[in-house]
Structure formats: structure tokens, C-alpha cells
Design brief:
With about 300 residues, the protein is an alpha/beta fold. It folds into two domains: about 5-30 and about 145-295, Rossmann fold (3-Layer(aba) Sandwich), CATH 3.40.50.1100; about 35-140, Rossmann fold (3-Layer(aba) Sandwich), CATH 3.40.50. Helices cover about 40% and strands about 15% of the residues. It has helices at about 10-15, 35-50, 65-75, 95-100, 110-115, 120-130, 145-155, 170-180, 200-210, 235-245, 255-265, 285-295; strands at about 5-10, 20-25, 55-60, 80-85, 105-110, 135, 160-165, 185-190, 215-220, 275-280. The strands form two sheets. A six-stranded mixed sheet has the order 1-2-10-7-8-9. A four-stranded parallel sheet has the order 5-4-3-6. Helix 2 (about 35-50) packs across helix 7, helix 3 runs parallel beside helix 4 (about 95-100) and helix 8 packs across helix 9 (about 200-210). The longest helix has 15 residues, at about 35-50. It starts with a strand and ends with a helix.
């Protein structure tokens, strides 16, 4: 189903005379919400075309991607294997409990071994060990994922000036940029500290996918709140107030930081008067249970 657009009402937006809409990708698919469905859609089709019965992928213990691949396996009839960074910790956290409930087999890799996750020799070894599975990279970003993420913009049926999106591996952002083909302005909000490193990676994804260079995008790198999966009280307060005002739940790793950044940019006059902005809600809400359990945070 198309992800609906929801307009946000806030005095700050009226004061600055800008419109802000949320593209509710979190409502896109009941089992695979958000950008994970976009990234997996064509990969699942390719796995079927290759007559693969097993999906194997990589992720951390709280990975949205691990949860999504597990759900996809149950939904579409694949055996799933998750190669998890780090040692097993019992009891399992909510993400890994969910993955197991969907039938995923978990295998733990030391951080040293995990760093080989993209090495051809290591992938060949895993292929032999697990009977030639369809291997998905960490975070799910590959050319088929970029193709799926181009469709984030194809079902937007209104005029707009800016589109904003959180970024982890850069695949979703690359898909949005490729889908727009040089039109509009794209703002990416890296979840990692020092997120400027993503620029050459995104440019490489775009080159590999479309053979084109685009100048209509930039990375906004100062809303990481200390780094990946790090939170601060002002972020949690913002998320709580956002949920109460707009009835939209965010998560603190990606969408919370992105939306905080968008409102801060509005307050600072970054957007010209009359601008219409779309912020993409990429889902990832399954991770909130882990924050509540691990840190006692109300998210």
C-alpha cells in the first residue's frame, strides 16, 4: 500500500511559514514496515528467481535489518540465518527474541570475525557452510535495495521542495536521490558521529546504480547526539512531545534524530519561506522495546 502523507501542525512551522509533512513509510507493510520493505522487495524477488530457499544476513544485536529479514522469511517462506556481531547474551533482547520467534537461526561472530562480513573469501565460506544461501549485506544495502528505495518518491503525489531522511548505510538516501533524478533538494541525517564519511559511499552507490552524479543533496551531520544509538535527554523529550502532539511514534536511533534536526533547521531559518518539506519516517520502531528494556528509557 502507498505510505500516506501526514501534515504536521506546529506554531514553529506557522511562524516560519513552511509546511512539514511526514511520509509514513512506517505504515507501508504490516510485517516489514518502513525502508526495510523497500530494501528487501527486489532482493526477495531475486532470491525467488534464483530458487534460493535461505536468506543469510548480518547485523548487531538490536538491528532493524535482522528483525526485518526474519519477518520476511516467515512471510515469504524462506529459511533465515542471522550472523550476529558479538557474543550471545541471555536472556535475549527483544529484537533477537523476535527474530527467533519468526524462525531465524542465530549465529554469533566475534567482532574481529564480523569485520570480514564483506570479504569474498569469508562469504564463500559461509555459502558452503549454509548450502548456498542468498546473502544480504549488513543493513540490506545493495543495488536491488537502492532500486526499491527509489520508489519512496514515486508515490508522492504532491509538489514539494525538500525531502529529508535519516541515514545509516546510505542505501535509502541513495535510492531517494536516484529516484528524484536531480530534482528537489534532499537532506540526509546520518545516525553516526562523523557522518560525512557516508558521502563517498552514497556517491558510489549512485554511480553504480545510475551512472550519474547528482548535486541536489547534502548530509546534515550535527544531529547524531553523540553517535550511533546514543541518546540525550533533549532528544527523548522531543520524541515524547512529538508523539503527544502528532500521534506519531519515533525511535531514537534514526527518525527521532532526523525529526529533531528538521525542526531545529526550521527554527534556525534554514528553509526558505513557503517551502514544503517532506520527512520520511523509515520505521524501525521495533528497536524501542530494546531501549526500554536495556536502558529503562521511555521511548
Amino acid at each position: 500500500m502507498p505510505a500516506p502523507l501526514q501534515q504536521l501542525r506546529h506554531p514553529l512551522l506557522d511562524q516560519q511559514n513552511v509546511e512539514l509533512w511526514v511520509k509514513r513509510e512506517d505504515l507501508l507493510h504490516p510485517a516489514l514496515p518502513g525502508n526495510k520493505w523497500r530494501k528487501l522487495k527486489y532482493n526477495l524477488q531475486e532470491a525467488k528467481r534464483q530458487q534460493k530457499s535461505t536468506l543469510l544476513t548480518f547485523g548487531g544485536a538490536y538491528s532493524n535489518h535482522i528483525a526485518a529479514v526474519a519477518a520476511a522469511g516467515e512471510e515469504f517462506g524462506f529459511r533465515t540465518i542471522g550472523m550476529i556481531r558479538g557474543e550471545e547474551h541471555l536472556p535475549l533482547n527483544p529484537t533477537l527474541r523476535f527474530a527467533i520467534s519468526k524462525g531465524m537461526e542465530l549465529h554469533y561472530l566475534s567482532r574481529e570475525v564480523y569485520r570480514q562480513k564483506d570479504a569474498p573469501d569469508f562469504l564463500q565460506q559461509l555459502s558452503g557452510q549454509f548450502q548456498e544461501p542468498f546473502i544480504l549485506p549488513e543493513g540490506g544495502t545493495n543495488m536491488l535495495a537502492v532500486k526499491g528505495c527509489t520508489e519512496i518518491v514515486t508515490d508522492i503525489d504532491m509538489k514539494y521542495d525538500y525531502i529529508c531522511c535519516a541515514s545509516g548505510t546510505g542505501g535509502t538516501l541513495a535510492g531517494i536521490i536516484a529516484g528524484l533524478k536531480g530534482e528537489k533538494q534532499v537532506l540526509g541525517f546520518p545516525a553516526l558521529k562523523g557522518g560525512a564519511f557516508l558521502r563517498p559511499e552514497i556517491e558510489q552507490l549512485l554511480q553504480n546504480y545510475s551512472g550519474r552524479h547528482f548535486d541536489n543533496w547534502e548530509l546534515i551531520t550535527n544531529y547524531h547526539f553523540g553517535g550511533y544509538a546514543k541518546v540525550k535527554p533533549e532528544l527523548l523529550t522531543f520524541m515524547q512531545q512529538f508523539r503527544e502532539r502528532h500521534q506519531v511514534t519515533l525511535e531514537p536511533v534514526y527518525t527521532g534524530k532526523m525529526m529533531f534536526g528538521v525542526f531545529d533547521l526550521v527554527a534556525k531559518g534554514f528553509f526558505p519561506e513557503g517551502a514544503r518539506i517532506i520527512a520520511v519516517h523509515t520505521g524501525g520502531l521495533q528497536g524501542n522495546a530494546g531501549f526500554r528494556e536495556r536502558l529503562g528509557l521511555e521511548v
